[in-house]
Amino acid sequence: QPVPVVTIDGPSGVGKGTTSALLAARLGWHLLDSGAIYRSLALKVMNDDLDPANEAQLAEAAKALRLSFQADGQHARILLDGQQVNDQLRSEACGDMASQVAPIAAVRQALLQRQKAFQQPPGLVADGRDMGTVVFKSAPLKVFLTANAEERAKRRHKQLKEKGVDVKIRDLLRDIEARDHRDSTRKVAPLVPAMDAHVIDTSDLSIEEVLAQIMNLVGQHV
Ligand code: C5P
């Protein structure tokens, strides 16, 4: 029996991260935050002043990435070149750079095995853009979360405000729409629901309601 995987894909700001972490905790399964891997490469690009247009150099950097995840209660400590980088990875600059390096096929290929290695007993919740379409194609349960862009901008605004960061909703909305566009129109592994994905529109749902729906699907499909 293969180790079961639940894939949670969707655009930025849809609550995938929170939902996936809670789901993994509830099931007692491992968690793959694949965005953190792309963000780590992005941070490496920014720190080492690599050229985001040099595809061969980026693929090399992706292969050589010294990245590890250490369990730490609910969340993982993310170490890049031995340094904890959790806070740096969350910055808008890092997310933005991640979505610039993510379209490169050789980069995605170089990061594939690293992601597959997370499939360990008793199970895995995999959060990203192409978990159900590329990385874990035969997962028994694939979920695709959506929410309208205004709602996602509002949620992001609230999150940032709690952290003391003051940004305009209008600017967040513009960034979200730009990132959505880049992620869904790229040639390689674009952001689209897998054919067999269960699409949940979370615009009017609380995290608990979303979780309840997914737990229900887990009961049926896993
Ligand atoms: O999910 P998160 O916002 O951390 O992802 C940052 C960026 O990394 C996304 O906008 C996307 O371009 C890229 N990404 C990806 N494939 C994944 C996860 C993230 O291309 N599986």
UniProtKB/TrEMBL annotation:
Keyword Nucleotide-binding: yes
The keyword Amino-acid biosynthesis belongs to this UniProt entry's keyword annotation: yes
Residues where ATP binds: 10-18
Compartments where found: Cytoplasm
Span of domain Cytidylate kinase: 6-218
Listed GO MF terms: 3-phosphoshikimate 1-carboxyvinyltransferase activity
Keywords: Amino-acid biosynthesis, Aromatic amino acid biosynthesis, ATP-binding, Cytoplasm, Kinase, Nucleotide-binding, Transferase
Function: Catalyzes the transfer of the enolpyruvyl moiety of phosphoenolpyruvate (PEP) to the 5-hydroxyl of shikimate-3-phosphate (S3P) to produce enolpyruvyl shikimate-3-phosphate and inorganic phosphate.
Family: Belongs to the EPSP synthase family.
Subunit structure: Monomer.
Name listed for the protein in its UniProt record: Multifunctional fusion protein
Gene label: aroA
Residues represented out of the complete protein: 437 to 658 of 660
